[in-house]
From TrEMBL:
This is PEP-CTERM protein-sorting domain-containing protein. It comes from the Bacteria. Keywords: Signal. Residues 1-28 form the signal peptide. The lineage of its organism: Bacteria, Pseudomonadati, Planctomycetota, Planctomycetia, Pirellulales.
Length: 237
């Protein structure tokens, strides 16, 4: 489901005013552990582009403690992920596109409530070819849907104005597609004025076009040699 564009809310710098904690989340869910995640050898989890982060912050009485899972999928793999987990919906990405997916999987503490999730995007990376932010509802208990989204050339945003996530709430799958391979960029979650100044890194499009992994010539030669050897053994029997 596509989201209407809205103006991005002001995010204040709270380096000297807030308490900040960022770490890898311990209780990662299906998105952060899926074997369907894109593996080009450069992702943070044994080469795969998947992970989970915990974020906490406080400022002026506003508080935030939440976990976000994420993954990037190559063509056709997101549909396999949905099928693996009996989730509804269909893969919205096209051929030769990477689908970038994020999910707020846990809110432990949020006052006044999680109202924004933002993923950084390099402004030099082919903006016209990146889809608008969208979401896929999963029908989970206490699931909150974003009320809008936007792209201001440096980030993808999902807004939960008047639908803020409180303690115990989760989101559906927040996503966008791109014809570019992943790199690292920031993730920002906000609850009022509470939100980390220094954000964790997650998958986001690079300036490298999507490409199907092609075996190295040496690997191809080795495979051909092995095949020839096997055929030779069979003929000598």
């Amino acid at each position: 489901m596509s989201l209407s564009r809205m103006h991005r809310p002001l995010v204040l710098s709270l380096a000297t005013l807030g308490v900040l904690l960022i770490s890898h989340a311990a209780g990662a869910g299906p998105l952060a552990t899926t074997s369907r995640a894109l593996n080009d050898g450069f992702g943070p989890d044994a080469g795969r582009w998947r992970g989970s982060v915990s974020i906490a912050g406080a400022a002026f009485g506003d508080t935030l403690e939440a976990e976000v899972d994420w993954a990037a999928f190559g063509p056709g793999q997101f549909q396999q992920f949905l099928d693996d987990n009996s989730y509804p919906g269909a893969d919205p990405s096209g051929a030769n596109e990477v689908l970038y997916v994020y999910q707020i999987v846990s809110v432990t503490n949020a006052n006044p409530g999680v109202d924004t999730l933002t993923v950084g995007v390099d402004p030099a990376d082919g903006r016209g070819a990146v889809s608008a932010p969208s979401y896929l509802p999963l029908g989970l208990a206490n699931e909150m849907a974003p009320t809008g989204g936007g792209d201001n050339t440096t980030s993808m945003d999902w807004f939960f104005q008047n639908a803020e996530l409180q303690a115990g709430d989760v989101s559906g799958l927040l996503m966008f597609s791109s014809p570019f391979m992943p790199e690292y960029d920031f993730l920002q979650v906000n609850s009022g004025l509470a939100g980390p100044v220094v954000s964790p890194l997650v998958a986001s499009p690079s300036d490298r076009p999507f490409e199907v992994n092609v075996p190295e010539p040496s690997a191809v030669a080795l495979a051909l040699a092995c095949t020839a050897a096997v055929l030779g053994c069979k003929r000598r029997r």
